[in-house]
Write a structure and sequence with these properties.
The chain is mainly alpha-helical. Helices cover 80% and strands 0% of the residues. It is built from twelve helices and no strands. The chain has helices spanning 3-6, 11-29, 35-45, 48-70, 76-99, 102-126, 139-159, 162-172, 177-201, 207-216, 220-231, 236-255. Belongs to the 4-toluene sulfonate uptake permease (TSUP) (TC 2.A.102) family. One of its GO terms (cellular component) is plasma membrane. InterPro entries: TM_pro_TauE-like (IPR002781), TSUP (IPR052017). It holds the Pfam family TauE. It is found in: Cell membrane.
Length: 257
């Protein structure tokens, strides 16, 4: 059966999803958090809950490309600190999805994203210094990692919107551009892959959604290549501003009915 007729998509709707898939690839190799725009497009074209199941394999494809590109720049002490808290957040998000409707999900995630962006801007204006990522081993660093980890796991489970939360954490921890991208690449590859059984169990991933994924995943590759080209032409301050701006845009889009 034709994929577009299976999902009752028009040519323009499929084109919008293809653009969103391209943007996923770009966000994974250039401006993390920009894929919140993709999330909004998928939720606008497809039923909101179903869109999370379609988007997840596309995100994993982007994660694989990002790991291949930035694997040497990952900061593993940060990752090990985050994973237990993220697991708790994923479980909480799964429970939340069992009873929450689309409106509650969108409002909750949008509010969290805007809160995280506001906190990050405030922290960076308050202390305009470079933190050391190794500070995650201090007591305050561990507490911050747990807090962001739970929020990241929760938001990535309920709406594939963990990217902006983790972007805010990595920026606040003082990561430079390549370390930021390498750490987030491994983080989301592991977390998104672990979400597959949960999403399948909730009925968000099935044969129909995978058929649509097969048609859209091809657009992730040119987006990733474009991001890899662009990242070397973006300075650190502009990079940080773009990440925060993408987070705010994504949060506002989720709050709009």
């Amino acid at each position: 059966m034709n994929t577009m007729s299976l999902w009752h998509l028009t040519g323009w709707e499929f084109a919008a999803l293809a653009f969103a898939a391209l943007l996923v690839g770009f966000s994974k190799t250039a401006v993390s958090g920009a894929n919140t725009v993709s999330l909004a497009i998928f939720a606008a074209v497809l039923p909101a809950r179903a869109s999370t199941g379609v988007l997840l394999p596309i995100l994993i494809a982007g994660d694989l490309l990002a790991v291949l590109t930035y694997r040497r720049h990952a900061h593993w002490p940060t990752l090990w600190r985050l994973f237990p808290a993220v697991a708790a957040g994923v479980v909480a998000g799964t429970v939340f999805l069992m009873w929450a409707d689309d409106g509650i999900v969108r409002t909750s995630i949008g509010a969290i994203l805007l809160l995280m962006a506001g906190v990050t801007v405030w922290r960076r204006r308050r202390a305009d210094t470079e933190d050391d990522p190794d500070r995650v081993t201090t007591r305050a660093g561990r507490a911050k990692a747990r807090s962001y980890g739970v929020l990241g796991g929760f938001t990535t489970m309920v709406a594939n919107a963990g990217g902006p939360v983790m972007s805010m954490y990595l920026l606040s921890a003082g990561f430079r551009k390549l370390g930021f991208l390498g750490t987030s690449a491994f983080f989301f590859l592991i977390v998104n892959t672990s979400k597959l059984p949960f999403s399948a169990g909730l009925g968000l991933i099935d044969a129909d959604s995978l058929l649509l994924d097969a048609a859209l995943v091809l657009f992730v590759v040119p987006g990733a290549l474009l991001g890899r080209w662009a990242v070397n032409r973006i300075n650190q301050r502009l990079f940080e501003h773009l990440v925060i701006a993408a987070t705010v845009v994504g949060g506002v889009q989720l709050l709009i009915p």
